[in-house]
Structure formats: structure tokens, C-alpha cells
Amino acid sequence: MNHPKQLEQFQYDDQIVKNFIFATVFWGLASLLAGVYIAFELAYWKLNMETAWLTFGRLRPLHTNAAIFAFVGNAMFAGIYYSTQRLCKASLYAPLLARMHFWLWQLIIALGGLSLLLGFTDGKEYAELTWPFDIAIAVSWVIFSVNTLGTVFIRREKHIFVAIWFYIATLITVALLHIVNAIVIPVGWLESYPVYAGVQDAVVQWWYGHNAVAFFLTTPFLGLMYYFIPKAANRPVYSYRLSIIHFWSLIFIYIWAGPHHLLYSAIPEWAQTLGMVFSIALWAPSWGGMINGLMTLRGAWDRVRKEPVLKFMATAVTFYGMATFEGPLLSIKSVNYLAHFTDWIVGHVHSGTIGWNYMLICGILYYLVPRLYKQDLFSQRLANIHFWTATIGLLLYIVSMWSAGITQGLMWQAINEQGSLTYPNFVETVLRIIPMYWIRAFGGVLVLVGFILMIYNLLKTINAAPAAVTENFQAENQRHQADHQGDSAHRKLEGMPAVFAALSLIAVLVGSIISIVPMLTTDRFTVSDIVKPYTPLELAGRDIYVSEGCYTCHSQMVRPSPSEVLRYGEHSRAEESVYDRPFQWGSRRIGPDLARVGGKYNHIWHYKHMEDPRSVISQSIMPSYPWLITEKTDLASLRRKLQVLKKMGHPYTEEEIEYAQELALEQAQDIANELNQSGISSEVVDKKIVALIAYLQKLGTDIEDIVNKEQHKDLTYD
Amino acid sequence: MKNDEKSKILDDEKNIVLDHDYDAIQELDHPLPSWWVMTFYGGIFFAIIYSVYFFFMGGFSIEKDFQEKMTKIKELRSEFASEGDFNLAFYQELLTDQVIAQGEEIYNINCIACHLENGKGGDIGPNLADNFWKNGDGSAESIYEIVYNGRLEAGMPPWADILQPEELYAVTAYVRSLRGVESEGAKGPEGQEYPVPADNE
User: Fold this and answer.
1) Residue of A278, A298, A558, A602 best to disrupt the B interface, most CBs of B under 10 A
2) Which end of chain B has less neighbouring CB within 10 Å, N or C?
């Protein structure tokens, strides 16, 4: 059959790609600036400026959210919209939807960033934005998915290329992760409590957090790698069969690995073990991507030495390989014990986000902008300088964080021959790593400076560009062509994107269900006959704790190990967290753990410490929180909050709900009276500081009864 | 800056080029590198073996491991435990300028925040250099006891678990040596007046 070819005409929508590129560069600059600033805050605490919105606890979520969702997110949208059209030989399915996607996303970033600075947060890492934003993100993501999948469905190619496989897995899994993790009951316009408590919340959150790394920072960029490296190097993809096996094994295994963020925590040990073994098994699937990326450059290495685009891409894939080796290593229980809560993790994360995402994005931008604007790059030399500046900055970052993390981890666990802690003063372990904080901050400056050079370079290129003309393309529509004889099953599958999407969904559901559902279907983690629910004032204090981002520096999880128990007291039990919505176990100890802080110091100590930490711990690097002493606690909302919590099973009586505000004031009066004896004005009674003190004094106070019950149980079983 | 050039194929790749073409991107069908296949199966193999070891053979358990280690530490600690009782003879034997200087260092890290420099007293901690004492009588023995046990109700944490036994004595010696040191802005007297004891001689 030799029909004359029916050629169809179409255009690519490149304007939307340009929009997303501008947003990438703009928000990239903002996120790097925030990152550099908070890096200096850790080295030099005075930069917190005694100003609420400038403190580390509020800026750190701003930095992480901006880096992930604003910088990397916009780059992902630009790259996917550009490559999907070309890989499908089709124009964008719905250009108007793409514009809605663009503006809604930028609105979420701008207003969401503002809300974080103002202290509105869900208090869960990388998911800090409050519920109205979560809804907007979901809507935005659905629009993006409809548009991308729509383009795939109207393609003129018969098969979908490996890049599209990764895009499909991304679309499905991010939607699943985001929606499940964001289920909350609102108690105000920007406030809510999650439906999960304690252990459940921890497990869901790190299933989300870990797989946000997997499906927001990794899979879409593996897809982009499969498109842009062959294009830029003008070389074929190294191994088709490797791409098949590493794609399916990667998405199937990745989803199980979340609990490696919770090793030695109070989640069940079986879940921890699954998290560890799947992380080890993930090593090879990750490296499959690295091999295909690097080996595609085979025969083009002479150009890698000269061309900045390829330099950035080759370096990105190399760092991807390094980070995905380090990840499984850090998931081994004993290694994790040393590294968890330290800067090693921070270094690991940045070898992913800077080494992989930033480098790959910059490579793509240097490739795309000249092509989109039909204008050679303004300066190759400047791009080379950017490459070296960023690479050196990144290396300084990683090495200083390795050094800081291992140093502090070893100091925390050092026990002398008399059985006591060698470094009992926590602040001593902080002071030891301050020099590393300076080096890290300097490394961050280099990464930022490189980025600014790129912005200048790209703007100069765009300014010199000729006026845009719409190009017409033509191609035969091959979508409905018959399969070739002898095509493998997978090859046939590549012609069926809907089936492909369904199989991807199944692949990610298996691990999700097995590792999470058992925790959600038991009341073991939500009911306790021992732990007392938070009093109204303690609850108000807890909300302040969450709002100030205390969890960015303080954990509430004493791990079961001698050094932790010597330093803080009894190790944490799952039962202690049954009323914790959200859980606040934390992931980094820049300050000490707080799970046992209740009753350790008196009220006046806490008052002085929040007002000026140096007044009680002379070398502390914690910011001062003077506004807690002048700002009023929101007591009016307590009744509504208690009502919502009661619906979720917190044992409040009708009376407690009815008189929540009065009860809170009563407890506040007791604390204020005691403060008053030390000369603190009695006006402090309705201020945030008092509520926060009430919360801090409650922490860990149920442990004695829990231990008693455990011992009693042991006796009866024996 | 051409966009639609087909990939450059090397001589040794001519037999493994697939007829795939996506926006001019071609694909080769290199076999899987054997070392990669080994890591791939190795990882899965490890996952299975470790899971069997953990779930069915009573393998490494964090909780069990912790209990064992903790028992050892407790034995060690009971061996070296300082009773909390003040040993005057030991203290006086220890009492040298060097030990007092060591005590000053410890003081400047741990105590200065509340009691300020030279024990002149601050918002939280009382004056340690005058003859008035809220708790105890200002003797080395009573200073030691307060450092050891703390006075939680007054905001003073216990230091027994944080400082080493000799460090407790050293900081006691330093605080004891502050008696009579006058500082600008010192906190006023609190508690009862006690005469200077003779234990530091």
C-alpha cells in the first residue's frame, strides 16, 4: 500500500514556553537569594534582625518552596510544553488552558510566598502552603495534565518517546501525592488541621516528601534529559531497553522508600525496614538513567569540553548519579543514625537540587533561549564562567555540609569511658560547625552569582533577537498506523498512552498502599488512654510553634539510642503523638530536640529565652522573638478549633469547647502570675509568649505514665 | 543551531540503531551493561535477603539493639557515678589556681547567661559574689549541691548529668572563689546573710 503522504500543517506554541522560562529565571533568582540569606543567618544569627518575616523559621520554607515549586516547577513546565509538542508533532492541546496554568501558578507562588512570610503554614515540609493554595495547586496541576496528555492524545507520531513516559508518571503521581497529603479540615481561611495525626501524619508526609523529590524533581527531569541531551549532543539515546527497565523499576521502587526519612523514629519498625531495603534496590534503577544520559554523550565528549550547554548537562547527570548513590547509602539504618538531623542531609539534598536540577535547568535554558529567539547566545565565555562558578560553589556547599554533618553527628553520639556524653552542651556542637556555615554560605553566593551571569547573558541574547515569526511545520499523521510485525509488547504499549498511564498508576499505587494503609486503618496511632489532649492554651501555643516554623530547627523525636536518651531523656513513643496535627518531629536539629523540654526549665527561663536567647545561653544562635511578647494570642478561634479536633477524635468535653477561651485565659493567668513574680509585666497574660510557654511545658509530660504502663504490661505478660 | 538534524551515528552503532525517530532523536539498542545488571539484581537480592532476615529470622531490631547498648551504658555509669555527696577532702585536694581557672571556663559557658560575669547576678540568677544566699549557705558544699541537683522551681537546671564529676568540683571552686568580688551593676542581696566559711583555704 503506497498512499501519497497526507501532510498536516501545524505550529508549535512557543510563547507559553517563553513565559515559563521568564518565570523560571525570576523565581530561580528569588529562591537562590532566600537560600543564600538563610545560609548567612545560620553563620551569623544577627541577620534574623529581630523581625518576624526575616527569621530562619519563616524564610527556610519560603526558600524550599520557591526552589521546588517556583524555580524547578516553572522550568519543568517550560521544558515539558516545549518537548511534548515536538515529540508528538502536535501543537499544544489547549493554549488558553496553558495560559491559565501559567498565571494561576505564578499567583500561587506570589501569594503563597507572602503567606509563608506572614506565618501561615501547614507545618509540613515542602507542603507548607495552606489549604486554599493546595486547592489552587491541584487545579493548576489538573490543567497542566489535561494539556500535556491532550497533546499526547492528538499526536501525529504513533509511539510515545521515553521522555513522555516520564512526563506521564510525573503527572499521575504528583497529583496523587499532593492530594492525599493535603487533606485537612479548615478552621480558618488560612488555617487547618490535617486528618492524619502523629505517626499517620509522619508516614503520609514523608511518602509525599520523598516522592516529591522523586516525581517533581527527578522523573520530569529525567524526561527532559532524554529529550535535551540527544538534541544538544546530536546523538541517539544510548539504550532503548535500558530506558524501559529503568523507567518501570524506578517508578515502582521509588514510592516505597519514604520511610527512610523516619528511621529510628516512632513509626513501626517493619515500615522502616521496608523503606531501607527499597532504597537500596533503588540504586540501580537510578543509575540506569545516569548511564543512558552520560552514554548518549558517547562520541560527543570533545564537544562537552567546549560547549557550555553540554557541560551543564553532563555535570547535572553526574551529580544525579552521585546523589542517587548517596541516597541509598544514607538509608542504611546505621549510616542514617549518624547523618539524620545533621547537615549531611542538607548537603545531600543540595547535590540533588543544585547539582541535578539547577545544572540541568541552566543547560536547558542555554540550549532553548537561542533556539526560541533565533539568536546565538550573547557570550559562550560568560556561560563557561557561570558553569565554573556554580560548580565550585556547589562543591564548597557539599563538602562543607558533609564535614559539618559528620562532625556534629559524631559529637552528638560521643560517650566517654564513664558512660556520659562527651559533649553534653548542645550549643558546643553548633559552635563547632559555624566555620562550615560560612563556607556553605560562600558556596551559595557562587551559585547565585553564576545564575545572575546567566540572566544577563540570556537577556542580552533576547534583546538582540530578530522579531518572532510563526513557523509552520508539516507532518504525516501516523497515530493510527498499524503495529509493525514483530513489535515487542512494550513497543505496542508505547502506542497506547492511556494504557501506559493506567499501568504507571498501578506501579505507584502498590507501594503507596502497602506502606501507608496499614497505619491509617488502625486506631493505634490516634487513640491513647494516657496522653492528655492539649488544653486550649497549649493548643494555641502549638499553633504559634507551627506558625513560627520552630520545626525547621528543632526536632521532637528522641531516637532510641543511648546518646539520645542521655541527652534528652526517654526515647519517643508513637503514643505521644496521637494529638499532634500536624506532627512536628522535624528533620534537622540546628537547636536541640524539644520532645522532653516540658518541665525542664521554669516559665521565666522560657520567657527570657524567647525574648533574647543569649540572655540564658550565651552562645546560642537562635533568633530573638520579641514580637511574641507584644502580639496577642488568637483565643477567639479556639472554640472552633476544639470542635474540629473533637470531630477527629480528640477527647474534649462539650464544656471545654464551650469555655475554651475562658479556660485558656485561666491557664494563662497562672503562667503570667509566675512571670510577674520575676518582674514581668502582668500585661503579658494574653500574649503569644504565654501560650507558647504553656505548649512547651506540656511537651513530653506524658512519658512517665507511658513508661509505667509499658512496665506494667511487661510484668503481666511475664 | 539546526533543530531537525538526525542524530550522528557512529560506525560501531550501525547495527543497533532502531527505526525510532522522535523530533529527529534516534535510539540505539545497546545491551544492558553487565555491571549494571549485577547492581540491579544485587539490590533486589539484598532487599529480599534483608527482609527475610528482619521479618522471619529475628534480625537486627532497633529496639533490641538499644536495650542492649543502654544496659551496658547504665553499668558503666553506675561504676563511675558520683554520689552527689560532697567530698570536702577531695575538693580541697583539687583546689588549685588551675582548677579554679578551669571552673571559670565552665562557668563562662554554662552559668554566665543567668548569673552574669563574676557572679554579679542577673534577671534569673542571684548574685553569687555577695554574702547573701537564697539557697544554701554559700559554702562549697552547698554550692556543689545546688549545681548538682539544680533548683528547677527557680529556673536552675541540674548539672549532674551534663558536667563531669571533676567539672562539678571545678565550677564549685570557681563560684566559691567569687565571694567578695565587687562588680558594677551587681544584683542586690537576696536571701539570708551568711559569714564566709573557711572551706576554701
Assistant:
1) A602
2) C
